[in-house]
Design a protein that fits this description.
- The protein is built from 13 helices and ten strands.
- The protein is α/β, with parallel strands linked by helices.
- Helix 5 packs across helix 7, helix 10 crosses helix 11 and helix 11 crosses helix 12.
- The chain is 36% helix and 15% strand.
Length: 334
Amino acid sequence: MTKMPELLRQRMEKQGYHFVGMHSAVKICEYTANGLRGKTLCYKYTFYGIRSWQCIQATPAIGCDLGCAFCWRLIPEEHGFKWNELNAVEKWDDPKSIVDNMIKEQRRIVSGYNATADTELKKKRWIEANEPKHVALSLTGEPLFYPRMGELLNEFHKRKISTFLVHNGTLPEALERLNPLPTQLYISLQAPDEDTYNKVVRPKIPGTWARFKKALSTMRGLNTRTVLRMTLVKGLNLCNPDGYAELIGLARPNYVEVKGLSFVGGAREPQRGLSQNSVPTNQEIKEFAGRIAELSGYIVTAEHAPSNVVLLCRDEESKKKRLIDFSSIGSGVQ
């Protein structure tokens, strides 16, 4: 791999990234830390039953071919680095070594919480945190740039670790050949039409909108749990619910997460042009989610106010099965 610029590595480490091998990273999530402190848990706990304190937030690839205006992550170009050089890999790390070392690094990260485990709940959760049961492949970059993603997912599943893979929709060919599939596949739905899409995601390669729509069509035929996740920004993409409903109809996911902007991290970079006024209120998100549900035929099912997100389910069957069946992980049954 092209050596990661030392300055970029230092900046990411300062932000809490822990590097694994040549091109992967983990970082403790706010809700993982909260879970270990006995505080508010993640929306994934409320919606799907994922234990926040047993969750690894990770990625096997650092570079991304989008530059979403609302992204809380560090965007290399904003700091003078080229995204494509970060994925110019001569030899990718082995999937087994990535998984083994992600688990090892996660245990190292949570080790310090043992000292503050002053209640039975915290002690129990700290012990459990050392045996992760879930990984969210969504930390930074585009995970599907890693060419052995199917093998990576299999390594997690063999360890009875469920997988949520978040894809930006620019690599439909990678989706088509993905085997096995993750426990739950996300595609980020960030705009209702092409003009808004270009303003919001700021693509770094041509033809991205067409590739995105192809990825949505591909999602429709995949035999796993599927989700479209929306991040909505006032004055930018909190608009045209009819357009969103049309794209939801193209993908027909089991779930749609309608979420408001979190004005943290990279979203605060002045060149993004956002402010606290760009954050929709809980009420605005609930109203917009309700309108999308009405137009698409989906069911408003749950909300997580701390994350400013509302869950829509495709039908009663999806609503009934929204909690993950951990006993099926690694068995080929989703």
